[in-house]
Design brief:
15 strands, alpha/beta, binds guanosine-5'-diphosphate-rhamnose, 2 domains, 10 helices, NADP, NAD(P)-bd_dom, binds NADPH dihydro-nicotinamide-adenine-dinucleotide phosphate, UDP-galactose 4-epimerase, domain 1, four-stranded mixed beta sheet, about 35% helix, single chain
Amino acid sequence: MKKALITGITGQDGAYLSELLLSKGYEVHGIKRRSSLFNTDRIDHLYQDPHESKVNLKLHYGDLSDSTNLIRIIQEVKPDEIYNLGAMSHVKVSFDTPEYTANADGIGTLRILEAVRILGIEKNVKIYQASTSELYGLVQAVPQSETTPFYPRSPYAVAKLYAYWITVNYREAYGMFACNGILFNHESPLRGETFVTRKITRGAARIALGLQDKLYLGNLDAQRDWGHAKDYVEAMWLILQQETPEDYVIATGVTTPVREFVRMTFAELGIELAFEGEGADEIGRVAKCTNPEYQLEVGKEVVAVDKRYFRPTEVDLLIGDPTKSKTKLGWVPKYDLAALVKDMIHADVALFKRDQYLQKGGHQTMNYYEL
Ligand code: NDP
Ligand code: GDR
């Protein structure tokens, strides 16, 4: 039985990757952070009582800022594969916490590589590093491939640049099987609530159900290459199953503006939007509502821009070239953007029908406007 160790197991990708590896018969170990509230929602359905026999999912307390902890866990688990997904992964927040981001996302990767080297198991372990399309940053060329130059535009991307190169360096210096997956944006119903796609699907669901008036967003002109996280974790696994360690771009090859994601999301609920104005003054109004379930007046302003969500330096356009991953890995994504939007918005409508029910019963529910 193969053993995998996943940092960031409680995140979006960690949850889907755990599911995938368990379905392939792996024993999965994950590092979770101590927090004052439970933080394992996304993997609770996979949880097995450690008192049972034949437990295939095991969690260890730890943190990427703690070398001794990482060395001990790796020594105990003796994994065949390590997936380093743990990170402070929010680009905008990295401008507020640049030093912490550098520590967790940059040096954290070094700590994993060094732990493997210190333990002398560098020839027995394969390592996947969660690299990102944010490395491309300020557009140098499109579509972006494995050979496109990097120009990071946030403390997050700069930290990930270090992680990318230290992974390459350890591969070349010590012959380690260490690979970068340069993944473009991937989303799902498990996506963190403050990333733009999930913020949009949650906002649209709540507006349709009468739980929220308006959705405030930042730069609607940014363009992203969005795929489904379920497809992308499959690529992570494939990267570690190859004969030689290499870096791969994982993307759909299709790019879409944020505004269009908003339009598609509302349209999936039978709500047609019309946009007017520009920049910080742009708004989106209901142009038509064909779904009798939702009581939305034509002309109602449901989308507005709030400058607080703008970034000091923005990444305007990402579009990936997945040729290498398609030909060498045989990676074939199952979801296109329309299927992704459908999956996310219907999951959020189902989620917020619970809030609607509670509110009808006179109970207080949370206010999500500040996301
Ligand atoms: P999430 O933000 O959903 O998950 C991040 C995970 O990292 C969480 O489990 C979080 O724990 C954990 N974590 C945060 N800080 C630390 C730390 N100091 N030590 C240990 N664990 C930590 O991210 P995703 O699942 O979306 O992304 C996975 C990885 O892939 C990240 O490295 C991200 O930067 C990268 N990436 C993501 C892309 C995407 O579009 N999703 C695209 C390209 C790269 P907790 O739950 O306690 O917060
Ligand atoms: P990104 O994802 O920065 O690409 O990083 P995010 O969804 O946060 O932003 C995408 C684009 O949408 C614009 N935007 C907004 N973003 C947020 N979060 N909130 C808003 O209200 C809003 N309005 C417009 C942003 O300016 C941006 O242009 C994600 C993360 O998962 C990273 O960890 C990962 O490395 C990259 O994707 C690939």
